[in-house]
Amino acid sequence: MTYSPRVECEMRTALPASWQAVEEFFVEFRLRQAGLLDRDHSFAAELLLREALTNAVAHGCHTDPDKLVHCVLRLKSRRLLIIVQDGGDGFDWRAAKRNPAEFTDCSGRGIRILRKYANHVRYNDRGNLVAIVKRLCC
User: Fold this and answer.
1) pLDDT tens-digit readout, 78-126
2) CATH fit for domain 16-135, picks 3.40.50.10860, 3.30.565.10, 3.40.50.720, 3.10.28.20
């Protein structure tokens, strides 16, 4: 089934920075997007979302469940918008963009993964918020 441009889906949440909270969120995400995205778009959407949430939980909040990760997902007009923000110090995304990790490296591949599967990736100056756009065509 393909995405219909008339269908809109939005999810907003503040998750505790724990792996359990992320997995519980994915259960809801899979249910909400079922039937809205085809298989390829569903894979890309989950990969992008998982990478952004993993970075926020692991690096931004250091898996401290007392800290929150804010997430907004919006599916509208043949595009998916993902915004993830954590309360951490952020990171120097400009330096990471200039010196990307290789896909074979054990860590640091997040920016490459986001850029490979998304159409647009933007960070705030502080580096604790990422906005990801994935166009959903065909």
Assistant:
1) 899 999 999 999 998 888 877 777 767 777 778 888 989 999 999 999 9
2) 3.30.565.10
Residue pointed to by tokens 């894979």: 43
Task: Tell me the pLDDT band of 4, cut-offs 50, 70 and 90.
Answer: very low
What's the CA gap between 1 and 90, in Å, rounded? 38
CA distance 80 to 9: 9
- pTM exceeds cut of 0.90: no
CA distances from residue 130 to 2, 6, 20, 74 in whole angstroms, order as listed: 26, 26, 22, 14
> How far out from the chain centre does Cα 105 lie?
20
